[in-house]
Amino acid sequence: MERLSITLSHFESFSLINNWTDVEKGLYLAVSLRGQAQGVLGNQPKDDRQNYKKLVQALQDRFAPSNQTELYRAQLRERRQKASESLPEMGQDIRRLANLAYPTASSDLKEVLATEQFLDGLHDSEMRLKIKQARPVNLNDAIQRAVELEAFYRAERRQREMVRSVDTEVSTREQRLESLIETVQKSLTSLEQEMKNMKRSQYRRQKSDDKGSDSKGKGVRKCFECDSPDHLFKNCPSRSNQGRYDVRVQTNGQNNDKRQVKGDESRNEGDKSNREEKHSRNIQVIKESGLYVKASVEGMDASLLVDTGATISVTSKVVFETLSLTCKYSLHAVKDELLAANGSPLEVIGRTRMCIATGQSKLEQDFIVANVNVDGILGIDFLSEYKCVIDIERLVISVLGTEHKLILEGMSTSYKISLVNRISMPPRTEVIVKK
For the region Disordered, what residue ranges are annotated (predicted)? Predict the structure, then answer.
């Protein structure tokens, strides 16, 4: 209907310029119709096709019936601002609907109705109140004020968004800092609790050790030698320093004379005549677990422990004192301290050089004379100097290419573990332990 009204208005203006008559206007209107409007022309009687008034009436009946005014009025009342629609576009559409809804009303009335509907269709209630307070005279005045207010509001919203973004960044930083502080506090609390638990555990352990050392019950095991609860008889330091051994001395054709020799006692009680005689001796002491080879030390049969963990070779104090009964050996002082496998210091007498016979081979070796529980120990110095090869599977040792049988002594399924130093380590820590 709107397009028909616009077209007819344009046609009327054009006909006035050219001073057309009604017959000429009918002819020009008929030849200018296109599409569905041309079909309306074909439906008219032949005599009415050049009649301008009847042709206009037919077009209005077809495209702008008078009974649609109620529809346009309803559309005008429900008209609201669309999401992507500008205020001038909305005002123009409301003006169109007002003209269609009230075709017979005066222009002033249409202007008032369009202005009221424009204000009611605005989304922003604050803008609506401000425009009403300004009392616009017509629709164009209301549209102009609405456009100005919209520009002001848009600039204000942009400024608020910038401030809000800055506030959001500051708030985010504060939240991160608070979260970090909370995490550190939790870690410190957990660490303090672990330290408290460790101190309590250490206190209980120390208290238990004190009670165990003070108690005299049957469950406390003590050393038979020095009555100390810290070790047993076999590990007693005083016993190790005394160095008691059972020594059997066998002379030619005579019965075995069993004597007890102490490491701290001298052998001056022996008979001088016996010292001058040549003896065939056989020394046998309590042995440690390990591999032994039968050898002759200065003519005396002995079982020597093959120990790859010992850096130097050692002979026992008993063997040295027994050999000293018949022959004098030069004994050199040793300044270095020797430690046993359990960390306890050994009583070192000195260093001497002896001859060892293994089979047909006679070898000379430097020995440290110390208070040990075996006849002697062949260390790395002996094994490397005489190119020794140990075959565990066959239980043989090769000395300078000659094989000798090894004897496996005292091997058991239980092993002794000695605690040299007590080290306490907090959980989740590393400690470099130095001797």
Answer: 194-220, 235-281
Cα 207 from chain centroid (whole Å) = 38
Residue 335 scores a pLDDT above 90:
no
Residue owning tokens 């202007």: 111
CA distance 185 to 189: 6
284-409 placed in CATH 2.40.70.10: yes
If DSSP codes are grouped into helix, strand and coil, which group holds residue 198? helix
Q: Say how far apart CA 212 and CA 229 lie, in whole Å.
A: 9
Where is pLDDT greater, at 204 or 386?
386
pTM beyond 0.90, yes or no: no
391, 353 Cβ separation under 8 angstroms: no
Domain ranges (residues) in the chain: 2-64, 284-409
| Tokens standing for residue 54 | 């009847």
CB-neighbour burial class of residue 56 (10 A; exposed 0-12, middle 13-18, buried 19+): middle
Q: Tell me which residue of 373, 119, 420 sits closest to 263, measured CA to CA.
A: 373
Contacts of 192 (CB under 8 A, 6+ apart): none
Helix, strand, coil abundance in the chain, percent, nearest 5:
45, 15, 35
Residues 364, 367, 369, 372: what is their CA dihedral angle, to the nearest 10 degrees? -110
The pair of three-digit structure tokens given for residue 83, joined into one six-digit string = 């999401």
% the chain with pLDDT above 90: 20
DSSP assigned state of 247: E
Task: Decide which of 201 and 288 is more confident.
Answer: 201
Note whether 22 and 30 are within 8 A (CB). no
| b/e 156-184 (16+ beta carbons within 10 angstroms → b) | eeeeeeeeeeeeeeeeeeeeeeeeeeeee
Q: Fill in the amino acid letter for 390.
A: I
Whether 238 and 223 have beta carbons less than 8 Å apart is answered as no
Model confidence pLDDT, tens digit, residues 373-404: 888 999 999 999 999 999 988 999 999 888 99
Instruction: Classify residue 98 as exposed, middle or buried by CB count within 10 Å of its CB (0-12, 13-18, 19+).
Output: buried
d(CA 63, CA 58): 9
What is the pLDDT, as a whole number, of residue 260? Answer: 34
What are residue 296's phi and psi, to 5 degrees? -115, 120
If you search the block for the tokens 């005394």, which residue do you land on? 242
Q: For the purposes of burial, counting CB atoms within 10 Å of the CB of 283, is it exposed (0-12), middle (13-18) or buried (19 or more)?
A: buried
Give residues with Cβ within 8 angstroms of 8, minimum separation 6: 56, 59
